[in-house]
From TrEMBL:
Database matches in Pfam families: MFS_1
UniProt lineage: Eukaryota, Viridiplantae, Prasinodermophyta, Prasinodermophyceae, Prasinodermales
Name of this chain's protein: Major facilitator superfamily (MFS) profile domain-containing protein
Family annotation (InterPro entries): MFS (IPR011701), MFS_dom (IPR020846), MFS_Na/Anion_cotransporter (IPR050382), MFS_trans_sf (IPR036259), SLC17A9-like (IPR044777)
Species this chain originates from: Prasinoderma coloniale
Residues of the signal peptide: none
One GO MF term: phosphate transmembrane transporter activity
Record key words, sorted: Chloroplast, Membrane, Plastid, Transit peptide, Transmembrane, Transmembrane helix
Length: 458
């Protein structure tokens, strides 16, 4: 609504909690807080909460094998190469559904695709102990099928949030959702040693997988792909979201050629590969590094593996809040914000990993890994927010494209560590990761942007 001033000009009055006043973006005022003209944000917070919970389950089900690997490798007689093969098999299926998950989510909406993904990977998790005892090929297939389900989760979430979350709330919302992965790692790594010691390695797969089945049943009744078709969202909040986001309807056709013709898109793809190489090495091999190099037992490996993920959960949300309120919210360009956040996300781990070979105690090594992962968490407000910045209408498929490169890094990196360690050392493992972090920093600062590309606007 509005009224005319003394000169007869129309003055538009924005809702208290955000939107625009006389054409000027009010940024974060009241964003994601109760009350105000945005309808209080209650419904979109519910969607963010569901995504957060799904990502907790995602990493709980992924990291449980990294702890269970210790007793399983002893029981089944696996060497380093076989362990690397088992760890990497998840990524075979994960790779297959990255782009497909993005296409499905952009066309059908995120509710169906995310729900399918959680239920599929949870069922595969429950079946993992049976597959392990049936033989190595069956286990590899089961882990690959789990990857198929988890592969659609990130593109589906990206599509959901591109339709539910205004741009000025994006860094915080994405940081919070992605921190669910860190919380999942914390929960999985904390609970797994106790469960394995008391109930056997099978228990972590049965228990964690059952949580996902419960989530899926709840999401079926309470989830929604966007505010336009959701009956639970208030009218004021619906109007606020629609006016504050670029996406209006699911994409019917994907402009593949135009997407792949943009250097900004390739910056995301290349940097996703560089980022995930180091991240997935730490995700899958950290307990083994603690046990073999630092001399920790099962419980110590689980405990010290948790610390970097705790620091990531804290740093991710702090960085998201800082990016939204202190940078973008105070007039700093989105482009500068994304470049700053991602530069920290790359160079922090590069410096820390390069120092690991010179430490004198296990505690110093753990401290470096904690600092490394804390810096890595700034990527949630850099690389991982950028898909929705440059092409929100195609956010799901764009994330699917870049995460395909990221998954290739996971497959190659996770297996390469096992091969390197057959005759080499952990110093060689870290050297490769550091080189890719530096490459990513150069590419990101040279070619990325935080502005929406005109040709992809709805």
């Amino acid at each position: 609504g509005g009224e005319r001033d003394g000169d007869g000009q129309l003055v538009v009055k924005a809702p208290v909690a955000g939107g625009k006043v006389n054409g000027e973006d009010r940024g974060n005022e009241g964003a994601l807080q109760g009350g105000g003209g945005d309808g209080g944000g209650r419904r979109r917070l519910q969607i963010v909460g569901f995504c957060f919970a799904a990502f907790i389950l995602c990493n709980m089900d992924r990291v449980n094998l990294s702890i269970a690997m210790l007793p399983m490798s002893e029981e089944f007689g696996w060497g380093p190469s076989t362990k690397g093969l088992v760890q990497s098999s998840f990524f075979w299926g994960y790779l297959l559904t990255q782009v497909a998950g993005g296409v499905w989510a952009d066309r059908m909406g995120g509710k169906v695709v995310l729900g399918f993904g959680v239920l599929w990977w949870s069922l595969a998790t429950v079946l993992t102990p049976v597959a392990a005892r049936a033989g190595l090929p069956t286990l590899l297939l089961c882990r690959a099928m789990m990857g198929v389900g988890e592969g659609v989760a990130m593109p589906a979430m990206n599509t959901l949030l591109s339709r539910w979350i205004p741009k000025q709330e994006r860094s915080r919302s994405l940081a919070f959702v992605y921190s669910g992965m860190f919380v999942g790692s914390i929960a999985g790594l904390s609970c797994s040693p106790f469960l394995i010691s008391n109930y056997g390695f099978e228990s972590v797969f049965l228990l964690f997988g059952s949580f996902g089945l419960l989530w899926g049943a709840t999401w079926y009744f309470a989830g929604a792909s966007g505010p336009e078709e959701d009956e639970r969202v208030g009218e004021r909040e619906r109007e606020y979201i629609v006016q504050s986001t670029s996406t209006r309807a699911p994409a019917e056709e994907i402009p593949w050629r135009r997407l792949l013709g943009r250097s900004e898109v390739w910056a995301i793809i290349v940097c996703h590969f560089c980022h995930n190489w180091g991240t997935f090495i730490l995700l899958t091999w950290m307990p083994t590094y603690y046990a073999d190099v630092l001399g920790f037992d099962l419980f110590e490996s689980g405990f010290y593996s948790v610390l970097p993920w705790i620091s990531m959960a804290i740093a991710s949300n702090a960085a998201g809040y800082f990016a939204d309120t202190q940078l973008i919210g105070k007039g700093t360009s989105v482009t500068f914000t994304r470049k700053l956040m991602q530069s920290i996300g790359f160079m922090g781990p590069a410096v820390c990993l390069s120092l690991l070979s010179s430490v004198n105690s296990p505690q110093e090594a753990v401290a470096l890994l904690v600092i490394s992962q804390s810096c890595d968490a700034f990527s949630q407000s850099g690389l991982y927010s950028n898909h929705q910045d440059i092409a929100p209408r195609y956010a799901g498929v764009l994330l699917g494209m870049s995460n395909t490169a990221g998954v290739l890094a996971g497959v190659l990196g996770t297996y390469a560590v096992g091969v390197i360690l057959e005759d080499g050392s952990w110093d060689q493992v870290w050297t490769v990761a550091v080189g890719l972090y530096v490459l990513g920093t150069v590419v990101w600062n040279a070619f990325s942007t935080g502005e929406e590309l005109e040709e992809f606007k709805a």
